[in-house]
Specification:
The complex is a heterodimer of chains A (864) and B (71). Chain A has 864 residues and is of the alpha+beta class. Chain A is built from 26 helices and 23 strands. Helices cover 56% and strands 20% of the residues of chain B. Classes of the chains: A alpha+beta (864), B alpha+beta (71).
């Protein structure tokens, strides 16, 4: 449309000019001139038609488009001329921008994009102290008595994976359900995609037999093939009929926000009125602030309220409400790591730009004459500058296109890392904001690496440019200085990145080396909860005997035991004390509870420190016994032998064994106190997990175990065997994620820095061919020349390393919180990185140095 | 001044909508001419420019011949 208007206007102007020229000519002829003379006179009076045309064009404000088109044409031609270096440039810009955009989309999903709830800014996470959950009774009082919140909702923090057995339709399957309060979904502003949310009546039943269930979108799609008619159907969960009342929308991914790395299949109502619901600290609370109320003032109110509640109800557990904005709770922990990655990406982009800047500079050197000629023909300085910038922007935009493809692939890959317990990872994708970021990165890097070569433009003086023989030009000393600066800065940045990556890799290795207190390799677990309700202790114990006998007879299994929770996977704690000990309520020792059978220690590889393990003779009828870990033994009976002491649990249990501490919270946190109860002496556990130790790869065992256990319960849904190594890997996955990305960037930076120094040295050897030739003619030996080149390289590298070391020192304070078992000033890391960079520089410079030393003096002088 | 330098000016005026142009056959001579006419918008702009010019001319006059003002 605009184009057509433009051509029409062009034709009109042409007609106007021709008509007026003809008129002028006519008038001149009338004054008696010959037609030839008349035409010349007319033109003289009229002026230069081409110029007029161009000036008139300029008034149409199309000129910028015109010159942009021609700039692009030049840029395209220039790129074609140097296909090799163009491809190289596009490739490294693409890799840089690809990495940057991928990291940005992670940052975007975790830190920038609001949580997928209504008005997420008003949502607040309320924990009890730093980590604990809250007693439901406290929750009810806090909810009813506070003034700051529009509402509080809760969900059970003690749900455990695979706690419900789905039977009746198709293959029996264990699914994970989370009990939530009635207002949970309305408070978050989540509308079911199908059906409805829980009603009040549905939340007043029995905890163990929920009347209704809401399915998660992914479970609905997987198990019911997105069948809409499932709403209203009855399912059998743990042998109880439950009505499906709705399906949650795909956008609501509970797991990725609240329980990263766990698949949540369904939600059931949590009847707060039921006295049989789990007691103790079992509730996670999220609240919606009233408009205008700040987190600080709500915190102040709840603190006062909690103090009142504690004095009114001394029988309850302590409560210290701690408020954190929900977004911060969900992804706050990843913030330092993500900011570090963003900075790493920025450093990589700077190295890319430095590299390309030098490349463009070398290209401009070769086009010296072209520029000088164009300047002489009237191209203004601004016009030339713009052309050079257009060329670099074209390059960077091509690179960005490649980068975008990489980022799309990268984010897809990341979103499918389900084993990584990073919050919101599944929602990582390339969205509008990422596109904008990519474009910005492309333009910024294009301008950055194109600016220095573009500013060379005023150097192009016609006389010098045309006289110049193309080698030692007037700009070369400036160029040399500039190129050196680029290489030094590349080395400095690479040095900072490598130090950071090395520190984190070292931390990661230290974390891998941590003694967890058990041996996860070759151990696996699976849920074996019986399909029937256990009527009494005798029935329970014969089930346990049966399971263990059969499991131990499977070939390849060297040990088997049963436990209610696995290390790194769920906790519950009680206040504990030795007989005769009295503690203040707020400073009462607490221990994590593990209900285990005989064989558990061996299956998990937990060393027994003293005393004995449980045996199959520790039954309901025998003396109540207990095992403690070393920390609990030290806490309750400092300086004494714990064996033979009595704990107040269940009316008195004798300590028969002391076992090693297990780091159940992850490798980076100390374990704390633990207490082991014999499974055959209690019914107080929520799950039965068979733990086996094998000589074979755990995966190959599943079928054998299934066959062995089938006679006990044909409906037993033997879900896939869960290798314990998987649990450990999941806990370490955030650290692995950061290490993986950062090492990738550091490696890329090292590669770029070595390419950069190679390009600079080989360019300067080319430039100095004549000089080296003369020096060799005057008697310099090949070795001397080679040494000269290598020394120069080393100087640059050392300057870069010195700067980089300073920078790394400055930055290292900042990553301190991400380190484990190493210090920010680890001398081995710093010197190792320095040596590596020197070695890389020397290797990169060796080829041009050898070329320099092979220069034939005669040949070199003849080239001029 | 060369005639040609008029064209960019005329086209700029047209671009801003202050004049409109039309090809017409002149009645006395048998050939086409391009006529430029002032639009209503152009007339208003002219008044504005005129008053600005007057102001400027007066200012310049005051600076150039301050004595004339005094007498």
């Amino acid at each position: 449309m605009r184009w057509r208007r433009m051509t029409k206007r062009n034709a009109d102007l042409e007609r106007e000019l021709q008509s007026d020229l003809a008129l002028e000519e006519e008038e001149q002829r009338e004054r008696g001139l010959s037609s030839e003379e008349a035409r010349h006179a007319a033109l003289r009076a009229f002026g230069n038609p081409t110029l007029i045309r161009e000036q008139t064009h300029a008034t149409w404000s199309w000129s910028w488009l015109d010159s942009l088109a021609s700039d692009l044409k030049y840029a395209y031609r220039g790129m074609g001329r140097n296909a090799g270096s163009t491809l190289f440039a596009i490739l490294i810009v693409g890799l840089g921008i690809g990495g940057a955009s991928t990291v940005f989309s992670v940052v975007n999903a975790l830190l920038l994009r609001p949580l997928p709830f209504r008005d997420p800014g008003q949502l607040v996470w309320i924990s009890n102290g730093d980590t604990y959950s809250t007693q439901p009774e406290h929750f009810v009082d806090l909810r009813d008595q506070n003034q700051s919140f529009a509402d509080l909702a809760g969900w059970s923090g003690t749900y455990s994976s695979g706690d419900k057995e789905l039977t009746g339709t198709g293959e029996p399957e264990r699914l994970t359900s989370v009990p939530v309060t009635q207002n949970f979904f309305p408070l978050l502003g989540v509308q079911p995609a199908l059906g409805r949310s829980f009603t009040k009546e549905e939340c007043e039943g029995k905890y163990s037999a929920p009347p209704a269930v809401l399915l998660s979108y992914s479970f609905w799609r997987r198990r019911f093939a997105s069948d809409q008619s499932v709403v209203g159907q009855k399912l059998m969960l743990n042998n109880q009929p439950v009505t499906v009342i709705g399906v949650l929308p795909a956008s609501f991914d509970f797991a990725s926000v609240f329980a990263p790395g766990t698949a949540i299949d369904a939600f059931i109502p949590w009847p707060l009125s039921d006295t049989m619901k789990p007691a103790g600290n079992s509730m996670q609370i999220v609240g919606r602030l009233k408009p205008g109320v700040t987190v600080a003032s709500a915190q102040a109110e709840l603190t006062v309220l909690a103090n009142q509640l504690e004095s009114q109800h001394p029988e309850r557990n302590p409560v210290f409400p701690k408020l954190v904005p929900l977004g911060e709770h969900v992804s706050g922990q990843m913030r330092p790591a993500l900011l570090l990655l963003m900075c790493a990406v920025g450093a990589v982009m700077l190295i890319v730009c430095a590299n390309l800047s030098h490349l463009q500079m070398a290209r401009m050197g070769a086009r010296h004459k072209e520029m000088a000629v164009r300047a002489a023909l009237g191209a203004g300085r601004f016009r030339l500058l713009r052309q050079v910038l257009t060329e670099s922007l074209t390059l960077s935009c091509c690179g960005a296109a490649l980068g975008l493809v990489l980022a799309v692939a990268g984010t897809r890959g990341l979103a499918h890392l389900t084993a990584f317990n990073l919050p919101l990872l599944q929602s990582v994708r390339v969205d509008g904001r990422t596109l904008a970021f990519t474009l910005l990165a492309a333009v910024a890097s294009g301008v950055l690496f194109g600016l220095a070569p573009a500013l060379q433009v005023p150097v192009y003086k016609l006389r010098e440019g045309l006289q110049d023989t193309g080698r030692e030009s007037s700009g070369s000393s400036r160029h040399r200085w500039f190129g050196d600066g680029l290489v030094v800065s590349q080395f400095a940045l690479a040095c900072v990145l490598l130090v950071g990556a090395a520190l984190l890799i070292q931390s990661f290795l230290r974390v891998l080396d941590v003694n967890l207190g058990f041996h996860p390799e070759r151990a696996a677990a699976l849920r074996i909860d019986p399909g029937f309700r256990i009527p009494n202790a005798a029935r329970q114990n014969s089930f346990i005997d049966d399971v263990l006998d059969r499991a131990r007879s499977v070939p390849g299994i060297t040990a088997a035991g049963i436990s209610d929770v696995l290390p790194l996977d769920g906790d519950r704690g009680w206040q504990v004390s030795g007989q005769g000990q009295i503690y203040d309520k707020n400073h009462h020792p607490e221990a994590f509870i593990r209900v285990v059978s005989d064989g558990y220690l061996e299956a998990l590889g937990i060393p027994l420190k003293s005393g004995r393990e449980f045996t199959e003779n520790d039954r309901a009828s025998s003396e109540p016994v207990v095992m403690v870990n070393e920390t609990l033994a030290r806490t309750l009976w400092p300086g004494q032998d714990a064996i033979g002491q009595t704990m107040t649990q269940d009316g008195g249990r004798r300590v028969v064994g002391v076992v090693a501490d297990v780091r159940h919270g992850g490798p980076e946190t100390q374990g704390g106190s633990e207490m082991y109860l014999p499974m055959r002496q209690t019914g107080d556990y929520a799950a039965m997990r068979l733990v086996v130790r094998t000589t074979l790869p755990p995966d190959s065992l599943a079928a054998g175990i299934r066959t062995a256990l089938r006679p006990i319960d044909p409906n037993l849904p033997v879900t896939e065997l869960q290798p314990l190594q998987g649990l450990v890997d999941k806990v370490m996955s955030p650290r692995r994620f950061v290490v993986m990305l950062l090492s990738g960037f550091a490696g890329f930076a090292l590669l770029l820095a070595s390419l950069g120094i190679y390009a600079l040295i080989s360019y300067s050897v080319n430039q100095r061919t004549k000089e080296i030739g003369i020096r060799m003619a005057l008697g310099a030996s090949a070795r001397l020349v080679r040494r000269g080149v290598l020394m120069k390289t080393l100087q640059l590298a050392l300057a870069g390393i010195a700067l980089g070391t300073l920078g790394a020192f400055a930055f290292s304070k900042w990553i301190e919180s991400l380190l484990f078992g190493t210090t920010t000033t680890n001398p081995a890391v710093f010197s190792g990185v320095g040596l590596l960079l020197c070695a890389v520089a020397l290797i990169a410079a060796y080829v041009p140095a050898r070329r320099a030393s092979r220069i034939e003096p005669l040949q070199a002088l003849r080239t001029e | 001044m060369q005639h040609g330098s008029l064209y960019p000016a005329l086209h700029r005026l047209e671009e801003r909508g202050w004049v409109v142009s039309k090809w017409e056959i002149a009645p006395d001579r048998n050939r086409e001419f391009k006529y430029y006419r002032l639009t209503e918008k152009g007339r208003k702009q002219l008044l504005v420019e005129e008053s600005q010019w007057k102001q400027m001319a007066e200012a310049v006059a005051r600076v150039m011949w301050p004595a004339a003002e005094e007498s």
